[in-house]
Structures are given as C-alpha cells and as structure tokens.
Amino acid sequence: MATIVKCPTCKRDVEWSPASQYRPFCSDRCRLIDLGAWLTEQHKIPDEPGTAEDQLHSDSAEES
After folding, report:
1. Cis before residue 24, ω within 30 degrees of 0?
2. Whether the Cβ atoms of residue 37 and residue 45 lie closer than 8 Å to each other
3. Distance CA 57, CA 64 (A)
4. pTM, 2 dp
5. Where are the domains of the chain?
6. How does the average pLDDT of the chain come out, rounded?
7. In this predicted structure, what is the pLDDT of residue 61?
C-alpha cells in the first residue's frame, strides 16, 4: 500500500511514490506556488532571536 500525504499547498491527497512526479506536491502549479512563497520570504526558517544580529556585532567588535 502506498503512503498518502497532503499537498503542502492545496492539501489534496498525493501518493508518495516514484509515480508522483511532483511529490510532495500534487502538481507543478502547487510546487511553483510554494517556491514563490519561499522567494518572497512568505515562508522562512526562523533563526534564534538575536543570533544573526549578535554575531554581526561581535564580529565588528573583534575587528576594532
């Protein structure tokens, strides 16, 4: 029996198998919608609060 997952974009059932060309998406359209969301930063991987900024300031202080 094949594993069934939900398309991350439209929530339609998708069979997780080599036959599903766009898995985990149901179609190329849903895949491109998701890619566009990443490119416009609607989707982000959160950083720990202040980590990037703290690193930037500590690098500047070491150079002085």
Report:
1. yes
2. no
3. 11
4. 0.63
5. 3-63
6. 84
7. 60
**Alpha helices (H) in 1-64, listed in sequence order:** 28-39, 51-63
Nearest CA among 43, 6, 41, 42 for reference residue 24: 6
Helices first, then strands: H and E counts in the chain:
2, 2
CATH topology of domain 3-63: Erythroid Transcription Factor GATA-1; Chain A (3.30.50)
Question: Which residues have C-beta within 8 Å of that of residue 28, sequence separation ≥ 6?
Answer: 22
Tell me: the pLDDT tens digits for 8-19?
Answer: 999 999 999 998
The 10s digit of each residue's pLDDT in 38-48 is: 999 888 888 77
